Structures are given as structure tokens and as C-alpha cells.
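[Archive record]
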Amino acid sequence: MTEAQSKTTYVGYYNLCNSEVTKVGKVIGIDLGTTNSCVSVVENDQPVIIPNPTGGRTTPSVVAFSKNGERLVGDAARRQAVTNSSRTITSVKRHMGTDWDIRIDGKQYKPQTISAMILMQLKKDAEDFLGEPVTEAVITVPAYFNDVQRQATKDAGRIAGLDVKRIINEPTSAALSYGLDHGEAQKVMVYDLGGGTFDVSIIEIGEGLIEVLSTSGDNHLGGDDFDARVSDWLVAEFKSEHHTDVSRDVAAMQRIKEAAEQAKKELSTSESTNVVLPYLTQVRGEAVHLERTLTRTKFNELTADLVRRTEVPVQTALSDAGITASQLGRVLLVGGSTRIPAVQQKVFQLTGKEPSKNINPDECVAQGAAILGSTLQGNALAAADTGMDLLLMDVTPLSLSIETVGGVATRLVERNTPIPTRYSRVFSTAAAYQRDVEINVLQGERTMARDNKSIGKFRLKGIRRAPAGVPQIEVTFDIDANGILKVSAKDLDTQKEQSITITADDRMSDSEIQQAIFEAQAYAGQDVQRREAIEITNEAQSLLAKAQQALKERKKDLDKNASKQIKNEINALQKALSKFRLDKMTDQDLENVKTAKEALERSAAQYLGM
């Protein structure tokens, strides 16, 4: 295609209080993180964190499948990772919007379906906390997520049974949480270094306005990379001492990775930490232990280049916003990895400002999402000290282009353009008498198409035969408040218009999403039945032990018929339990255990006083 002419862009502010109003239940805010996730809801005009079943305020973003087919999410999945590492999935967020998948027990799982399992757990935690069904959510993503990654996140929400009202950038969400309590006019830098991604945004907080001026980042930089450096060091130290490479020992590596993460955390408050892993592996038939002292100095040396990688995005964000570091009123640290002292020192070096300590880096993103969710229901939340309804304006993180003649990426929408936005440009054919054209939509900042990310292609058919350059094809880009792109095209000669849905190879189709939704609902039902079965079998095992002991103690006091009846019922329950398999459970198997258990309970109460 060739460019014919341009049209103007129009943008719109996003008024938090005058958007679409929903009235069904509460809208929860979810920070779907690489390492940990967090869920929040607004109660009495204040965002509160919803605890998980163990009382934690964040939930590990870990999913596991036990060998008996049980699905585990969060703390339970993380606890068994060492003994079941090949069936445990961590950091799935790094795969969102890619063609990655994992096959377990003959079934293929995409990133969207694994993420949906985490979201389902957070949804359940919220329902338990609120005592009512939850069907709507605002979910956060890294500011530097592209269109495919954002759509994948939205699809994960759909699979989990959530109507995703908004996808909001994590730094913007953090600033929204901060701006609710600090409404004074200022420019704020949000430095967000999480488990798998790094974002930096420059945000202006004015009188009732939160406006994102610019954003930059690195989708492959985060706490996981810091952990990997420590892991690699431990493996190298172990190999140097014992002449054994444990990098291919899956169980040993899982223990090393967990120890590396813990060491990183401890070095945020201590100058050194001891890593002790007894019986890590065997060398020539003998158990070998790993014991090493890691100092903060050595940790900083191992990770210095990772910290330096945050410099360019910071400088780019400041430049794109048209300000200098001295014009910043505050620097907010978001994400657990910002607790690393070397990271805080780098922020001070780059900005000349001590980072603010008055927001919780693990919770503020979810809280901001909850605030946005509440406003979508028409609940006006006012900026502090202003009494004015909050107004939010976000930006698109990456430029949008179309591939034109010569493989050039012709820019249509510049990065940091305020959203929502709509942009149209007229193109024409590059060859004579073309009846159709293929349009390759790109995201990125490079000049040539091949150097950018192709987020989808579409073909416009039915163009009237004409010499090259004559047809007038208007291509329109719509970026919604979620940062998700939709494309339409119209032949200005015939006025024939087509809506084009971008289809990337690594997106899930509607049919795949519907199948995943069905399976998720079925799996949720199985989980309930599985929990019931576990409770019943545990109670049955306990009843057996008590009945056998009571029978032994009171055998002389019982007549033969009563003794025989209890023995028969003990045997019946033992037989029912022996045939019961959690991974191959049928309704009849469970009913047999229930029936035998109830019979023994009645006899034990009648004859044994239990």
C-alpha cells in the first residue's frame, strides 16, 4: 500500500464518574502480577485489600496440577513446587500474548487459561470476603504491554467468568491510588519494577485530573531476572566446590530458585545472608549440601547491569513528557523489586529525589484498579482537598504503524498519544488493478516493519479495478480506554465499509475462549466436588481409626451380634475407601464411601458411645 493523505486525530478525556454505570454487585480491582497478585475493593469510599484463604494480602501467581489431578493455585501451589516442579507453572505473565503453551496430562494450556485460574481464585476470595457474587473487574497490565498482550489479559478475565470493565496500566493505577489522597498539583514519576516487567510513567496530578504524560519500559526486566542471577551464582559456586552441575536436576533447581528469591529479599534489609540447602543432590552416591554466604555487595555486583537497564526508560519517559527530573514533585516506587537498595539508589541518582515511602508497592496497583472499578458504577470519588471528581487520561505506550511499500513502518499513532483515540489515514494501492490489499499492523518505534511487533494482519477485498494510486482506502484506528486497538476500512470510491478484526496467531479465537470458559466452569465444579470428597474421606479415615480403637477396648462388653455388625461395617468402609481414587472419582464411588461411613457412625454411636 501507499499513503495518499492524512486525517486528524481526536482524543477524549476519560471522566471516571460519567462513564458507563453498572449496578450488579461490586467491581473488584485486580493486580495480576508476575510473581504475586492482589485484589481490592472499595468499601466506605476507601480501597481495601481482600485477603486470601491463608490471610495473605497477596497471592502467589502460581498454578499447579497434582499427580491425582487436583488443581492448586496460590500458596498451596507454591508449597509443593519442589516436589512437583514439572507440573507447576510460575511467571506465566511473561508469556501473555505469545504462542507459549504447556501440556499436562495430555491437555494443552495457553497463558490465558493459566492466568484465568489465578483470576478465578482471586474472584472466589473476593466473593468469600464480600458474601456476594462478583462478576465484574478492572485488571491492570504493565504500561508497556502491547495490544495482543492486553487482549490476552482480557480474554483470561472472560475465561475466569469476569466481565472486564477496564484494562488499566499499572503505573496509572498506582498514581490513581496515590492521587486520591494527594490531590495537590504535581508531576509524579511512577517507577514500577515488578516480578517480570518494568515500567516508568510520568503522571501529572492536577485539580481533579490525573493525566499520563508519557510511559516507557521493558517487558522482560523484573525480579525474576534478579533471582536468576543469584541462582546462576549458586549453581556455579556448587559446581566449583563439588564438580557437579545441578542445572539439569529439576528438583534441585527448584530449591535453588526459591532460596535465591529468599536471599534477594533478605538482602533488602541485611548486609549478608546465608543460603543453606541440605541434601541438595547426590555425588557418587553421597548426599551433598549447599551452603554459601551472599553479601549485598556481591548481589549488587551480580545484578548491576539489570539495575542499569532501568536508566534508558527513565530518561525516555522524562524526555517524552518534556520535563527534567528537577520538575518532578514525587517519585513513587511500585512493585516488590523496588525494595532492593541498589534500585532505590539508582532512582535517587536518576532523579535527585528520595522515593516516596507512603504507598505500599505491593498493594497500591490493585487499590487504584478498585477505585476505577467503583467509579465505573457511578460512585464519585473526589481527589483529596479538592472536592472535585477525578478525571483520568492515559496514553498508548507504543507507536502504531502500517507496513507500506519497501517494508517501511508508516507511523499512524505516536507513542504516548492520549487514549481513547481515533485516527484515520487514507492509503491507496501500490500496483495496478489490485482487487485486495493486505495491511500489516505494527507496534514499535523502529523505522522498518520487520523490526517492530506485528500485532495482526487483515485483508480488504472487493476494491474496484483501477490504476495504482487511484483507489482511496480509508483506514481507521480506534484505541479504546483499555489501550486495545480495533481497525476498520472503507473504500471511499464505493463507500463500501468493512470492520476488520485483527487476528494474531497467538491470540485465542472466540471458539477457543468459549471452550476455555466451559472447561473453567466445569473445573470449578470439579474442584468443589473434590474438596467435598477430600473432607469425607478424611472424616472416614478418622472414624475408622477411632472405631477400631473403641472396638478393641470394649470388645468384651459387646454381645457377638453387635461386635460382628461393627466389624462388618468397618470392613465395608475400608473396602469403599480402598476402591476410591481421587483422580478417577465417580459419583457412585463417593456415594459408597458416604453410605458406609454413615452406617458405621450409627453403629459406633449406638454400641461404642462414639
